[in-house]
Design a protein that fits this description.
The protein is of the alpha/beta class. It is built from eleven helices and 14 strands. It has a domain of 197 residues: NAD(P)-binding Rossmann-like Domain (Rossmann fold), CATH 3.40.50. It has a seven-stranded parallel sheet with strand order 3-2-1-4-5-6-11, with helices on both faces.
Length: 334
């Protein structure tokens, strides 16, 4: 298939592009580069620099490259930022998705794989989180994604030949196994790269947000899926798309606590990361992990890289060789 990947220069989009190509499909990359990195894209992949909300330019790209399926990663994903700037998230994430769907309709493209999130569940009443639990987000980021899912569900109901799958994933970790691309945000808020920044001296220490949760070691527990496994899930979902709206959790089905991640990082790097215990963050549930049995049962996907030390090892290899031009690279490399 000819596949358009939006948000292609971001962390997950750039890994998905490589996996889609390995599966034998032709890829076109689209990104406005507001937060992505052009260097993360293979030089021989056609690149369209524009916003997904620019309906006419997206439609033209879909027609020009004879696109048959879209993988949609373009979104902002900072929970705290979404609370402080909710309209930014509704404009970029929700209105951007609306523009993309309208462009797809105008171009006759009827297949979509959507990067969704477990944040649409809010604070679930039970663990593990399965797909039929109520979706009740607790921040604008989660709502922006849920509204996008709602538009897709309604479009599939109105157009019987439209196919869409939403992949609701949990925490993502690791990098390409050859360390050629990886996770690089500015600012960085994700636990594993923050730990690696502390190892590299980019930050003085890590703040652990609370150690008095009702968990075995008092720190929050989260489900971490390797970015390469996540990219695999997108390809599997794309190749098995059927008319209608489908949705799946993507995770490993168990969690790691913050202290377990710190210990795993120490085992990989060979020294303990500096950290301090800080106050809880408002709205942080003690435990979040996926029931990923539905995607295994219906699509045959399951995570294969389930040792968190492998994700940290991959991420550390990327971090050590990270080229100039990426977020934060100039200030933390000689």
């Amino acid at each position: 298939m000819n596949v358009l990947v939006t948000g292609a220069a971001g962390y997950i989009g750039s890994h998905a592009i490589r996996r889609v190509r390995r599966a034998g499909h032709h890829v076109v990359a689209l990104d406005n580069l507001s937060r992505g990195h052009r260097q993360a894209l293979p030089a021989d992949v056609p690149f369209v620099e524009c916003d997904v909300a620019d309906r006419e330019r997206v439609r033209a790209a879909l027609v020009q490259h004879q696109i048959e399926c879209v993988m949609h990663f373009a979104a902002f994903a900072y929970v705290g930022e979404s609370v402080g700037q909710p309209l930014l998230y509704y404009r970029n994430n929700t209105a951007g998705t609306l523009g993309l769907l309208e462009a797809m309709q105008a171009a006759g493209v009827k297949r979509l794989v959507f990067s969704s999130t477990c944040a649409t569940y809010g604070e679930p009443a039970s663990m593990p989180i399965h797909e039929e639990l109520p979706q009740s987000p607790i921040n604008p980021y989660g709502w922006s994604k849920l509204f996008s899912e709602r538009m897709m569900r309604d479009l599939c109901g109105a157009a019987a030949d439209f196919s869409c799958v939403a992949l609701r994933y949990f925490n993502v970790a690791g990098s390409a196994e050859d360390a050629s691309i990886g996770e690089d945000h500015e600012p960085e808020t994700h636990l594993i790269p923050v730990i690696l920044q502390a190892f590299a001296g980019v930050r003085e220490k890590i703040s652990v947000h609370g150690d008095d949760y009702p968990t075995p070691d008092g720190t929050c527990i989260r489900d971490y899926v390797h970015v390469e496994d996540l990219a695999d899930a997108h390809v599997v979902a794309m190749e098995r798309l059927k008319p209608g709206f489908a949705y799946y959790n993507v995770g490993i089905g168990r969690g790691h606590s913050v202290k377990e991640i710190l210990a795993a990082a120490e085992a990989v790097v060979g020294r303990a990361p500096p950290y301090e215990i800080g106050p809880r963050r408002p709205g942080d549930p003690p435990t979040l992990y996926a029931d990923a049995s539905k995607i295994q049962r219906e699509l045959g996907w399951r995570a294969t890289r389930t040792d968190i030390r492998e994700a940290i090892r991959n991420a550390w290899a990327w971090f050590e060789r990270r080229p100039r031009g990426y977020a934060g690279a100039a200030k933390d490399r000689p």
